[in-house]
Sequence to fold (652 residues):
Amino acid sequence: MTHEIAVIPGDGIGQEVTPAAVEVLEALEIDFEFVEADAGDAVKAETGEALPQETYDLAASADATLFGAAGETAADVILPLRTAVDSFVNVRPAKAYPGVDAVRPETDLIFLRENTEGVYAGHEDRLTQDVSTLTRVVTESASERLADFACDYVAGDDHDGFSIVHKANVMRETDGLFRDTVKRVADDNGVETDEVLMDAFATRVCLDPEQFDVIVCPNLAGDVLSDLAAGLVGGLGLLPSANIGPDRALFEPVHGTAPDIAGQGVANPAATIISAAMLLEYLGYDEASEDVHEAVEATLEDGPRTPDLGGDASTEDVTKAIIDRL
Amino acid sequence: MTHEIAVIPGDGIGQEVTPAAVEVLEALEIDFEFVEADAGDAVKAETGEALPQETYDLAASADATLFGAAGETAADVILPLRTAVDSFVNVRPAKAYPGVDAVRPETDLIFLRENTEGVYAGHEDRLTQDVSTLTRVVTESASERLADFACDYVAGDDHDGFSIVHKANVMRETDGLFRDTVKRVADDNGVETDEVLMDAFATRVCLDPEQFDVIVCPNLAGDVLSDLAAGLVGGLGLLPSANIGPDRALFEPVHGTAPDIAGQGVANPAATIISAAMLLEYLGYDEASEDVHEAVEATLEDGPRTPDLGGDASTEDVTKAIIDRL
Ligand SMILES: CC(C)[C@H](C(=O)O)[C@@H](O)C(=O)O
Ligand SMILES: CC(C)[C@H](C(=O)O)[C@@H](O)C(=O)O
Fold:
C-alpha cells in the first residue's frame, strides 16, 4: 500500500533539513509518495497567505506530513496544520545525545502535550479600551483522549506510568477537570501516575531530571516545559516532535528557521530526520524507524558533524553519512 | 515613626523561619511593632478558615507583612493576602549564592511578575459536563502600573533595561495588550527593552542565563519562569520575594512548608531573612537592608550552615550568626 507523505519545508533551514529527511526516507525504498506544498513567510509574501488552502487540504488528507519550519508566520502555519491532522497530542521527546554539550546530560523525558485547547483554543476579546480577555477551554473529552493515548504509550514501552503536570491549585475548574480526568482514565487502566504543579516541575526538572519520565500536560504547559527540557539537553537543535491525530499525523523538528545560517547548506538535519523516524514508527515501519534512529545516533557520536556541533560538515555530508549507516 | 509589621508564620517551617527573621529585624533596633496572626492548614483545621478575616485585615492595614509558608491551603492564603496589600508586582530575585550547588551558578535574574490578573483573575465556569472555561484577564491599566514600576526599578540600579516575556504569538489580544503597553511605557521613559516568547525564554535561560537581567512578565509566566530560575540556582531554598502594592507590601520566601524537616529546628532561615532585608529596603532602611544582605551572604559563605547546605547547624545557630555579623 502506498502512503502519501505531505512535505512542507517552509522557510529558512526548513528548506534544507526537510529535503534531507526525505532523502533518508527515500533511501529506505518503502512505497511512499511524496507531495510537496508551500507554507510560511515566503509564500505569504508572494500570495498574502501563510498557509494556502491546498497545503491545509494536503495535510488533512495525506497519511502523514513532514513539516520543516516557518518564520514570523509560525503560529499561522503550525496551529492550523495541527488542526488539519486533528492532532490531539504533541509527542515531544527531550533527551540529550552523545556529542552534544548539555547542562543536564542525564535528561530523558517524553512530553505528551494536549494539542487542541487550553489557551490555544484562543477565544479572545477586547472588552473595553482597558480590558482584554481570553477564554481558556479544557474539556473532559480532550483530556480523556490524551489520557487514553498516554496509557497506551506507557504500556507499549518500559515506563512506570506518567506524571500529570498542571496548575489546578489556581485553575481549579479547568486544570482540575484536566487532572481529575487524566487520573481517572489512568486509574481505570491500572497505570500509575503522580501529580506535579507546573511551577514545581520547572524547579525540580532542573535540579534532577531523572525523577521524571513521561509527562502529560495541558497545551501551554507542554509548550513551555518541553522547551525548558530542550534547554537542559543543549538546545532545540536535536529535538523532534510528532503531532498525532486519529487518522493522520504531522512530524516536525522543534527548532525554528535559524535565519542566521539559512541558505548556507550547513543546517543540522538530525532533528528532522529523527522526526522522520517517528513518522516511520507511526506508519508501522518499526524496524526502519529503529534503523534511522540508530544511524542518526551513530552519526552524532562519530561524525561527520555540522558546525552547530563543532564540525565543518554540510547538511548533505551528514545526510549521506546517515544514509550510509542504514 | 513606628512601622507596624504583620507577621504570619503559617505552617511547617514557616513557624521556624519567620520568628528567625523577626529576631534579625529586632536586633536592628528600629521602631517596629510586630503583630502576629494565623493562616494556613493548621488554623483551617481548627476554625474551618485558612485565612481568618482578622489576618486579612491585619495585612491590609499593616505597613508591611512578613509571611512564612502555607501547606495545602497555600493558594487560599497567599492569593488573598496579595490582594490585601493590593500588590501589583511580585519581585523575585533569583541568584546563586556562594556555597550553594547550582547547575548555573552564573544566574542572576530579577523577575517582575504581574501580580493581579492573567489566569489568576480566575473566572472559571463548568459550562457543560464536558466543557470548562477560564477567563484570562489582561488590562492596559495593570500592564501600565507594572511597566511604571519596572522603569523605576531599572533606573534605580545598574540595569540596561528589561526583557518583556510573553506569549503574544498565541495570546494575541491579551498578551499583545500586555506587550504593547509595557513597551510603550518603556519607550516613553527611554528604557530599553527586548522581547522574548516565554517558551524561547525557557530554553535560552537554561543555555545561558547571563543573557538576561530583569524580566517583566504576566502572572503565570512569572510563576513558572521564576521557579525555573530557582532550579538553575540550586532550588527554592534561598529565594526571597516581595509583593509590592502602592501603600504596603508583603514579603515571603519562595519555598514552601518543607513538611519533611518541619518541627526539627533545622530549617534554613536565609530566604526569609533575605525577604526581611527586602522589607527593610521597602520601608526606606536602605543601610540596614544592605547590612542584612551582607550578613546573610557572609554566613552562607563561611557558615554555620543548616543541613540543606551540608552543615549541621540549627535554625537558631544560623540566625545568631547572622545577627552577630550585623
Ligand atoms: C509557533 C508556536 C505557535 C508553537 C506553539 O506555541 O505551539 C511553537 O512554540 C511550538 O511549540 O511548536
Ligand atoms: C501557591 C500558589 C498559588 C503560588 C502562585 O502560583 O502564585 C505560588 O506558586 C507562588 O508562586 O507564590
Chain B has a mean pLDDT of 96. Chain B has eleven helices and twelve strands. The CA atoms of residues 123 and 129 of chain B lie 18 Å apart.
